[in-house]
Amino acid sequence: MGRLSLVSCSDPVQPPPAGRLGELVSALAAAGYDPDAEAIRELGADGWRRDPRRRAGMLNRAFADPGVEAVVDVSGGDLANEVLSYLDWGTIAANPKPVVGYSDLTCVLNAIVARTGRTAVLWNAMAGLHRGFGVLDAALAGETIRPALAGADGDADAFEALPWLGGNLRCFLKLAGTRYWPDLAGGVLLVESLGASLKALAAGLAHHAHLGTFGKVAGIAVGQLTAVDEAGQREAALALVGEYAGRIPVIEAPGLGHSADSQAATLG
Q: Is residue 149 part of a domain?
């Protein structure tokens, strides 16, 4: 299997061999991959923030390197949108390869879709420690990846065939009003969250309503809403989504989000 470039576009992460990233590198190697975390080692983890130019440079170099078969971002948090102004969109567009990330990387992945027309994969590679790395195999094979779907409002086959966009609710909305916002027309809006409360969910959905999202998308897929789910409020959340969706079909993707064994979805 090919070389994987591990990058960190959001908050600082502890370089391997320490911590969970060290576990991931070992697991990827055991699965036959060649994980390269040197860029993260060079970036370091001290302090609360790293220069966004350096973080963007990791991604640019990974796409430019013909020896890299896939790019896997292992970070999350708040800072990913800082890199957008420094990404080399020409290089990214000219060197198509799978790019994987989750949570705060929602903004980078959707920006890649918007600016290059390429797809991206919403997935936490750490989940591979629990479920294996079939997602990476599928991405490298050029397959469209979908999570398991459930719910009576939507036909799963129809949802799977449409382009998906979005991901983490808060982080996707960072792109609103920018040149990095993707075209949602005829697609599926994916919504998941980690810490968002019902009030935060309502605010995010209202933001989408102001943007005209619900007049464009053909469906909504609701992933894990971790804080809401843990509070026993998922039914209220689904009712809230339905209120904003109107006649747009809504389906659930209960295995996709921030769980340790999260499933994945191709964006774009």
A: no
